[in-house]
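Design job #97: recover the sequence.
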């Protein structure tokens, strides 16, 4: 086996792939199988290089000193030649001017070469820039933006002086050359802008592309209506498919739509209240950070107080149960109108404000996935507001309405044990999300996905009306369970919640402060982005332990409904499919983002969600 020449940690000169340029790098590791060195550039990029592409620093320093030592002799030689007495004076003047022109041409060539290198660096690393842009990280994007800003400033001449010089031809030869250089720089700058604009386009389409997203726009509302219609049946079995279709008159009522609008704008008012801390989100593609007010838990307290006041004045909250289908249709109609507004306003948004996953140029696809990343009305962020407020808090209110409806319909003085378990488990989940509202700023919904029909419908319709399916089912199909069974289900939910919360807390604390002494027991794999991949704790058990906790909790929410029908377990099946899809997206983006470090992590942690299974 050949011996390695360079040791780990040694600083050497590494050749950039596809070019003849060498940069200072540090050797991080060596692969004995492929005989490749893993090196890290100063900007954090990690690459695998052959030994022939690596040179020691001493060889470069020697050449530099050698060339500098020989330069005086060359200068003295040229000086002696220019002063040769055998040449006439006129010849000497012509030789000097030619020398100056030669120097100017040489200087111009060097400047053009430097600008060409700038373009080459931009062309050789497009995927890295895009990957970091997807994940909201500044890194090289900020440096490119800074370089573009400096280049733009260099390209802005004094317009008045330029006009006078053009009109009266007062421009010297030196200024003419500067003008040519500026023109050359401007051409290269325009080329960079064209390349960057093309790189912002979404090339890989998800959800089945244009055809798949077009079908989902109709399939998702139809699925919600189907599930709610089945729950209304005496026998919600799959054999009874399809359920009787409701009349159009029974699906719409103006008063119900007005109540929904009142609820939406009440939550918007709570969101705008100047309470709670203001935090910054992850850096955008231009390096800017948006500010968010974290007051979701306060909004939940105010909503609880408002609902308590309505109940005190004998307001019939089971009105939600009686008009549940109409509320779902009203929310769906509102989400469609909101999506149309979002797409129209996104057409006027700047290129850098568009979502990396929703900028394909296809109307249907961009409408579904969301064209603009962070649509705002002033400081009011529409996507961040809809992510947790109207739908998630509305989910708790709907569950409470189902509990009161069960007591009224079945003439019970107290709710059933099954209904209490469902309400308690899901209340814990919602309160946890609102208490840790700041953590949502690092999710793909905020950093990558645009705000379009997918998120608008999901936040306002799918979450409150599908996630409350178990409570809605129990009103018409009461299920009695014993205390030991209830205790076992409670333990299962607590296990799922513990995995979910501890895994997320472990990750968030490590991201916030990797040097925290409390996290000294955690081991990680360093990456080129400056972040680390945890290989101990929950993240060394499976790659997505938070998803494992989610699935266990979803199962605990459905078990109180019994096993008479599969309908209450639709949420579990859907949740598994959703998380597997998200996990596939995470795997793809992490591989693009972390490169070789992610491959090492996958070898260290082979299971994705379910240990020893998947």
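Job complete. Output follows.
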């Amino acid at each position: 086996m050949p011996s390695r020449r360079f040791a780990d940690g040694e600083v050497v000169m590494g050749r950039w792939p596809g070019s003849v340029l060498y940069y200072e790098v540090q050797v991080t590791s060596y692969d004995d199988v492929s005989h490749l060195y893993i090196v890290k550039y100063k900007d954090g990029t990690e690459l695998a290089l052959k030994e022939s592409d690596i040179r020691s620093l001493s060889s470069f320093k020697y050449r530099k000193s050698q060339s500098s030592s020989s330069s005086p002799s060359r200068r003295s030689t040229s000086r002696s030649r220019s002063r040769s007495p055998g040449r006439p004076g006129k010849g000497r003047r012509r030789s000097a001017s030619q020398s100056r022109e030669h120097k100017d041409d040489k200087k111009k060539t060097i400047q053009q070469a430097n600008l060409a290198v700038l373009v080459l660096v931009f062309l050789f690393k497009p995927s890295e820039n895009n990957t970091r842009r997807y994940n909201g990280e500044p890194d090289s994007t900020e440096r490119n933006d800074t370089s573009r800003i400096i280049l733009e400033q260099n390209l802005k001449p004094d317009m008045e002086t330029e006009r006078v010089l053009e009109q009266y031809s007062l421009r010297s030869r030196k200024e003419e050359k500067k003008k040519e250089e500026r023109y050359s720089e401007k051409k290269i700058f325009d080329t960079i802008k064209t390349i960057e604009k093309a790189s912002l386009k979404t090339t890989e389409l998800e959800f089945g592309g244009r055809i798949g997203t077009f079908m989902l726009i109709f399939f998702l509302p139809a699925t919600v209506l189907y599930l709610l219609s089945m729950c209304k049946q005496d026998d919600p079995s799959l054999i009874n498919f399809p359920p009787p279709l409701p009349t159009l008159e029974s699906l719409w009522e103006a008063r119900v739509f007005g109540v929904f609008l009142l609820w939406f704008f009440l939550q918007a008012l709570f969101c705008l209240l100047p309470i709670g801390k203001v935090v910054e989100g992850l850096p955008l593609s231009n390096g800017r950070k948006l500010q968010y007010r974290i007051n979701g838990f306060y909004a939940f307290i105010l909503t609880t107080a408002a609902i308590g006041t309505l109940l005190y004045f004998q307001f019939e909250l089971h009105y939600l149960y009686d008009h549940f289908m109409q509320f779902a249709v009203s929310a769906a109609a509102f989400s469609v109108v909101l999506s149309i507004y979002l797409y129209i306003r996104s057409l006027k948004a700047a290129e850098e404000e568009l979502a990396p996953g929703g900028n394909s140029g296809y109307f249907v696809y961009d409408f579904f996935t969301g064209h603009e990343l962070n649509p705002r009305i002033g400081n009011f962020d529409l996507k961040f507001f809809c992510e947790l407020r109207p739908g998630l808090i509305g989910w708790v209110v709907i569950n409470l309405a189902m509990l009161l409806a069960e007591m009224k319909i079945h003439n019970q003085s107290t709710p059933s044990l099954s209904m209490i378990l469902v309400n308690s488990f899901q209340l814990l989940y919602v309160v946890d999300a609102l208490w840790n509202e700041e953590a949502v700023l690092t999710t793909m919904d905020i950093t990558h996905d645009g705000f379009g029909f997918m998120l608008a419908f999901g936040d306002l319709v799918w979450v409150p009306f599908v996630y409350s399916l178990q409570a809605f089912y129990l009103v018409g199909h009461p299920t009695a369970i014993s205390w030991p069974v209830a205790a076992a289900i409670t333990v299962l939910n607590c296990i799922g919640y513990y995995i979910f919360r501890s895994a997320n807390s472990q990750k968030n604390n490590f991201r916030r402060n990797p040097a925290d002494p409390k996290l000294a027991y955690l081991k990680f794999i360093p990456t080129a982005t400056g972040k680390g991949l945890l290989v101990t704790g929950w993240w060394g058990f499976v790659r997505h332990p938070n998803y494992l906790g989610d699935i266990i909790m979803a199962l605990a929410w459905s078990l109180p409904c019994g096993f008479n029908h599969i309908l209450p377990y639709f949420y579990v099946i859907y949740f598994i499919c959703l998380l597997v899809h998200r996990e596939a997206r995470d795997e793809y983006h992490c591989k693009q983002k972390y490169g070789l470090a992610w491959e090492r992590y996958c070898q260290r942690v082979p299971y994705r969600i379910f240990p020893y299974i998947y």
